Amino acid sequence: MINDCVFCRELNGSRNTNFATRYPEIQSRIIYETESLVAFPCIGQLVNGHFLVVPKNHDCTLAQTQKRLNNLNLELTHLLREVHLILGFELNDSLIFEHGALGPNDGSCGIYHAHLHVLPSISKIDASKLYNFDNNDPIKNIESVLKNTPVDKPYIFAGNLKDGFYHLQLKEALPSQTLRKAVANQLNTEQWDWRKVEREENMVVLLKKMELA
């Protein structure tokens, strides 16, 4: 645990978090967890059901998690399937992306604990156009993306399990929430900045439903 990491604090049960400030009556937003990973709804959902996959131990990027855990791909695949079953979405239709930022010098949103964004049911998003990626031909799966990514370099990737993933090793910092904004542009919405979001009633409904399950 790192005390100045908001995700570490949240996973350790602290109420000194962005989530607890917005939803003081909800004790946990975890939808599903494995030995090493948790899934919970994203603050500032770009689409209904937008959730994050976060390692329980502090890694800055999932490439670091991949290096640390031999079975990451099995855990991640299992978690993604279970969460989609719980939420009632088709896994292959989900957009999946990560900005693997190591720290403030790499841009991002001020949270440097690895988090994979999963946006259900938006197969209409063209991942190849979210940024100027290195590869024209998509990489087959997330495991291949992460295994070929240095753990000490920032990166981004985006795609889906059906068509594959586009990847870029970053040479300069991205403006805050670049991929979120690019997704919002394709969705024709201006609501992309999670820091400006207050309470989201669809999140309350989801988490209340989870309590009753």
Strand content: 15-25%
Query: Structural class of the secondary elements?
Result: alpha+beta
Name the shape in a single word.
Answer: globular
The H-and-E topology, N to C, reads as HHEEEHHEEHEEHH
Largest β-sheet summary: 7 strands, antiparallel
Widest sheet: strand ordering: 1-2-3-5-4-6-7
| Count of helical regions | 7
Measured between the Cα atoms of the first and last residue, the distance is 30 Å
As a percent range, the share of helical residues equals: 25-40%
- Low-pLDDT stretches are none
Radius of gyration: 16 Å
Describe this structure in words.
The protein is an alpha+beta fold. The chain contains seven helices and seven strands. The chain has helices at 6-11, 18-22, 62-68, 72-87, 142-147, 178-186, 201-212, and strands at 32-33, 37-41, 51-55, 95-100, 116-119, 155-160, 164-169. The protein has a seven-stranded antiparallel β-sheet with strand order 1-2-3-5-4-6-7, covered by helices on one side. Strand 6 (155-160) and strand 7 form a beta hairpin. It is globular. It starts with 5 loop residues before the first helix and ends with a helix. The relative contact order is 0.18. The model has no long low-confidence stretch (mean pLDDT 92).
